[in-house]
Specification:
There is one protein chain. This protein has 65 residues and is an alpha+beta fold. The chain has a single domain, classed as N-terminal domain of TfIIb (Single Sheet). It is built from one helix and four strands, in the order ββββα. The chain has a four-stranded antiparallel beta sheet with strand order 1-2-3-4, with no helix packed on it. It is globular and about 25 Å long. The relative contact order is 0.21. Bound molecules: zinc ion (ZN). The site of zinc ion has 9 residues, from loops.
């Protein structure tokens, strides 16, 4: 059995681009890849490191909350 420490966090104030619901987006790291997904629909997006600075800003704001 593998113990993967994948910690999912809700992104406060984030809106799902698919179903347009608020506060349904969770994000986590899978290996070194940042993953963003919606708990209400099938939306899921991966962002590789350094790819999108906006993703990093979001992570910082999550920590502050
Ligand atoms: Zn959604």
């Amino acid at each position: 059995m593998s113990h993967k420490t994948t910690q999912k966090r809700f992104v406060a104030g984030a809106r799902c681009p698919e179903c347009k619901e608020m506060d349904t987006i969770v994000c986590y790291y899978e290996d070194d890849v940042f993953v963003r997904e919606c708990v209400e629909c099938d939306f899921s997006e991966t962002i590789s490191n350094e790819d999108e600075p906006a993703a990093k800003q979001q992570i910082i704001s999550i920590k502050e909350l």
